Each structure stands twice: as structure tokens, then as C-alpha cells.
């Protein structure tokens, strides 16, 4: 295969530009993730401070120990629900960022595999007689590796989605159970008065 220095430099330049674009897109995605997580943390902190102030004011107004205990029990379920909502939002932002970065990596891998296939096709045109079988075998191996990678990626996505759904269900069941328990305890305290 004969390649002029100009062709080699043009190929190198195109590849370098593609990698710079990939790094730029990945940086943009990461910055966006940091912005979303910062906003989430600020809003969550503000909400916690507001809830703490409201609880402190309500606790100062209470004169009966049972009413204070009921007030404190009443804060458990909302705190769990807010914690669950925060964790879910955090996971959502992280998953979205991971998906974007994975798409970028897959696109880069796809471009690289295409360039390997093109190079193998060019090699196939210029190989000595009889060695075209080896080049075809290499091309088939590259295509099979690409297919296996895509299959593995799909499997990982499916397992991740199933695990997230199970975690969401378990957390919702836990919040429900704690809510019922605290409600029952608060009712018991009030009836004991």
C-alpha cells in the first residue's frame, strides 16, 4: 500500500481534530453535570434550612412533652421522602451524564472501527496475491468485535435499568413502612394523653 506523506498528514489531522472535538464534548457534558449537581445541592440545603427553622419554631411553641414527641415523629417521614427525592435526582443527573459520556465513547469507537475497516479495505486492494484471505479475516474479526461490544453495552444498560427500578421500589416501600410506623406511634402518643 502506497501512502503519500500528504495523505498520512491529512489522516492524522482529521483524527486529531475528531479527538479534540470528543474531548470538548466530554468537557461540556461534565460541566453541565457539575452545574446540575451544584443547583441540586443548593436547593436541597435551602430546603433543609427552611425545614429546620420551621421545626425549631414549632418545637418552641409546644408545651406538652407528648406533643413535642409527636411533632418530632411527624418529621421523620417527610425527611425520608426528601432524602429519597434527593438521591433519585442525584442518580438521575449522574445517569444522564454517564449516558452522554457513553454515547461519546461509542461514537469515537465506531469512528475508529470504521477507519480500521477502511484501512483494511485499502490494504486488501494492495496485498500480494493469496493474502487477501488474511485481510478478510482481520476485517471479519473487527466487525465481530464491534458487534460483541454493542451487545455487551446493551446488556449493561438493561441490567443497570433493572437495578435502578428495584432500588426505587425498595426505597418507596421503606418510606411507606416508616410513614405507617411513625403515624401509628404518634397516634398512640396522642391517645395516651
TrEMBL record:
Pfam families per the UniProt record, alphabetical: Phasin_2
Q: Where is the Phasin domain?
A: 11-107
InterPro entries with a match to the protein in the record: Phasin, Phasin_subfam-1
Q: Which domain of life is it from?
A: Bacteria
* Protein name, entry field: Phasin family protein
Amino acid at each position: 500500500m502506497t501512502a503519500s506523506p500528504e495523505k498520512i498528514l491529512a489522516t492524522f489531522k482529521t483524527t486529531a481534530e475528531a479527538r479534540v472535538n470528543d474531548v470538548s464534548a466530554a468537557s461540556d457534558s461534565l460541566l453541565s453535570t457539575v452545574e446540575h449537581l451544584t443547583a441540586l445541592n443548593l436547593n436541597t440545603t435551602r430546603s433543609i434550612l427552611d425545614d429546620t427553622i420551621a421545626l425549631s419554631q414549632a418545637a418552641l411553641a409546644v408545651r406538652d412533652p407528648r406533643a413535642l414527641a409527636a411533632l418530632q415523629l411527624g418529621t421523620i417521614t417527610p425527611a425520608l421522602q426528601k432524602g429519597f427525592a434527593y438521591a433519585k435526582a442525584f442518580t438521575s443527573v449522574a445517569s444522564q451524564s454517564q449516558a452522554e459520556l457513553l454515547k461519546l465513547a461509542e461514537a469515537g469507537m465506531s469512528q475508529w472501527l470504521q477507519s480500521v475497516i477502511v484501512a483494511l479495505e485499502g490494504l486488501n486492494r494492495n496485498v500480494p496475491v493469496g493474502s487477501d484471505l488474511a485481510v478478510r479475516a482481520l476485517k471479519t474479526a473487527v466487525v465481530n468485535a464491534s458487534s460483541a461490544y454493542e451487545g455487551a453495552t446493551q446488556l449493561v444498560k438493561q441490567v443497570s435499568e433493572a437495578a435502578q427500578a428495584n432500588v426505587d421500589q425498595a426505597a418507596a416501600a421503606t418510606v411507606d413502612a416508616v410513614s405507617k410506623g411513625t403515624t401509628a406511634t404518634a397516634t398512640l402518643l396522642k391517645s395516651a394523653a
